[in-house]
Write a structure and sequence with these properties.
Length: 228
């Protein structure tokens, strides 16, 4: 977590709670918090800065950060903020832990408006869509609105009605993923094959195909966007 600060991010690191919080004056503006498991760098700490996230919370490798760590980040940005918006990706652990942190925060600080939006842009699944690459765009759009002083409900409404319904991403893998310390791949993929719709944690995709050219593969992915 200290690396973003070393690279120039003006913020403070809480090594105990595994969070990074911006150090500039954010009074009367909406604070934005995102986070998730480690292993997706530069997400999430790398997006903390002006015009983007206010704070980031990270968990262990591919594991959601604990509720208390998320709550700690919310406390850390709450002083003077006009509201707080949580922007986790749609994974079970993140959905539960960020949701519980939000409930706890509202009970402790009922005078501070706080909301949560789940990013679920994965075109590779028809149900329980995961959050993937489009999350970065949500961070940036919300961050730009917050930096302009837009109120919490306006940001929430704009993202929910204009951005998220039209946001789509899809993965394409030429090889399986192997987690550090594991001896087996996350799924089997033979030479000359590719997997369409692979998840960012190495989840198997929705369709296995013979290896195709970059142009043909792009058209397959584009078709998923149209169907989305």
């Amino acid at each position: 977590m200290s690396a973003p600060c070393m690279l120039g991010s003006d913020g403070s690191v809480d090594d105990y709670l595994d969070n990074l919080i911006r150090g500039d004056d954010l009074r009367e503006r909406v604070a934005l918090i995102s986070g998730g498991g480690s292993g997706h760098e530069p997400s999430f700490a790398g997006y903390v800065g002006p015009g983007c996230l206010t704070a980031a919370v990270v968990g262990n490798l591919f594991a959601s950060p604990p509720v208390d760590h998320i709550l700690g980040a919310m406390r850390g940005v709450s002083t003077g903020a006009s509201g707080i918006l949580l922007l986790p990706m749609n994974y079970t652990g993140d959905r539960l832990n960020f949701g519980m942190a939000l409930q706890k925060f509202k009970s402790l600080f009922p005078h501070i408006p706080a909301e949560m939006i789940l990013v679920e842009d994965d075109c590779g699944t028809s149900e329980d869509r995961r959050g993937v690459a489009g999350t970065v765009l949500v961070h940036k759009i919300a961050g730009a609105m917050a930096s302009l002083g837009k109120p919490l409900q306006e940001i929430v409404h704009f993202l929910s009605s204009k951005i998220l319904p039209k946001l789509g991403s899809i993965g394409l893998s030429l090889s399986p993923l192997r987690l550090p310390g594991r001896e087996e791949d996350s799924f089997n993929l033979h030479y000359g094959e590719m997997e369409l719709g692979t998840g960012i944690h190495g989840e198997a995709g929705v369709k296995r195909l013979k290896l195709q050219s970059a142009k043909e593969s792009t058209m397959l992915m584009f078709q998923k966007f149209i169907e989305f």
